[in-house]
Amino acid sequence: MKFFIDTANLQEIQEAHDLGVLDGVTTNPSLMAKEGIFGHDNVMAHYKQICEIVDGDISAEVIATDFDGIVREGELLAELHPNIVVKVPMIRDGVKAIRYFSEKGIKTNCTLVFSAGQALLAAKAGATYVSPFIGRLDDVSTDGLQLIEQIVHIYGNYGYQTQVLAASVRHVMHLVQCAELGADVVTCPLKVITGLLKHPLTDSGLEQFLADHAKGNK
Ligand code: E4P
């Protein structure tokens, strides 16, 4: 399973990278705005900086919602660095653009996916990744993990190459359950990745080991 970090914060990206388990990064317009990154040149420079930290797929989202605009923006993003993945929303022109990018050999991440039907469409269009938003489904009393299970099952039925990228991951158990269900990738905040480290028995066990070692070395 690949671990992506879901942030545009360079410090957090660096910290996850330094842990040695990071495979890529996902961003979105809200995450870029949170870091105060606005304007074409600043946005492009920021993506470049992310690419310099992480040698893995970096999702950069288009703002346009019409086919020509998505293609124009996506091609500019893809030219930035070979690791850029063009993130395209699950809308009619988005699906057409994903097909276009797929034929040009440009990697895509189909975002804002909330149903198995949408995921099927993304795979048919040739998306590299599909991003079902599990936390946002949970927020509206719908089982996000059930959607991951459905998509993994459907893609398995037909051997689709599109990778299931579980997004809107809110806590450690989301991540662990996505792994159980066979999601190819999970993207999450830094605290979810570092949350995997934690177990009280690890802490108390280590404390005991160190105390016992200290006794013998007095
Ligand atoms: C996915 O790529 C999105 O950027 C992200 O996971 C959305 O998460 P949120 O629902 O916590 O905003």
UniProtKB/TrEMBL annotation:
<dbReference type="GO" id="GO:0006098">
    <property type="term" value="P:pentose-phosphate shunt"/>
</dbReference>
<keyword id="KW-0963">Cytoplasm</keyword>
<dbReference type="GO" id="GO:0005975">
    <property type="term" value="P:carbohydrate metabolic process"/>
</dbReference>
<dbReference type="InterPro" id="IPR004731">
    <property type="entry name" value="Transaldolase_3B/F6P_aldolase"/>
</dbReference>
<dbReference type="Pfam" id="PF00923">
    <property type="entry name" value="TAL_FSA"/>
</dbReference>
<keyword id="KW-0704">Schiff base</keyword>
<comment type="pathway">
    <text>Carbohydrate degradation; pentose phosphate pathway; D-glyceraldehyde 3-phosphate and beta-D-fructose 6-phosphate from D-ribose 5-phosphate and D-xylulose 5-phosphate (non-oxidative stage): step 2/3.</text>
</comment>
<dbReference type="InterPro" id="IPR013785">
    <property type="entry name" value="Aldolase_TIM"/>
</dbReference>
<dbReference type="InterPro" id="IPR022999">
    <property type="entry name" value="Transaldolase_3B"/>
</dbReference>
<dbReference type="GO" id="GO:0016832">
    <property type="term" value="F:aldehyde-lyase activity"/>
</dbReference>
<feature type="active site" description="Schiff-base intermediate with substrate">
    <location>
        <position position="87"/>
    </location>
</feature>
<comment type="function">
    <text>Transaldolase is important for the balance of metabolites in the pentose-phosphate pathway.</text>
</comment>
<keyword id="KW-0808">Transferase</keyword>
<protein>
    <recommendedName>
        <fullName>Probable transaldolase</fullName>
        <ecNumber>2.2.1.2</ecNumber>
    </recommendedName>
</protein>
<dbReference type="InterPro" id="IPR001585">
    <property type="entry name" value="TAL/FSA"/>
</dbReference>
<dbReference type="GO" id="GO:0042182">
    <property type="term" value="P:ketone catabolic process"/>
</dbReference>
<dbReference type="InterPro" id="IPR033919">
    <property type="entry name" value="TSA/FSA_arc/bac"/>
</dbReference>
<dbReference type="GO" id="GO:0004801">
    <property type="term" value="F:transaldolase activity"/>
</dbReference>
<comment type="similarity">
    <text>Belongs to the transaldolase family. Type 3B subfamily.</text>
</comment>
<dbReference type="GO" id="GO:0005737">
    <property type="term" value="C:cytoplasm"/>
</dbReference>
<dbReference type="InterPro" id="IPR018225">
    <property type="entry name" value="Transaldolase_AS"/>
</dbReference>
<keyword id="KW-0570">Pentose shunt</keyword>
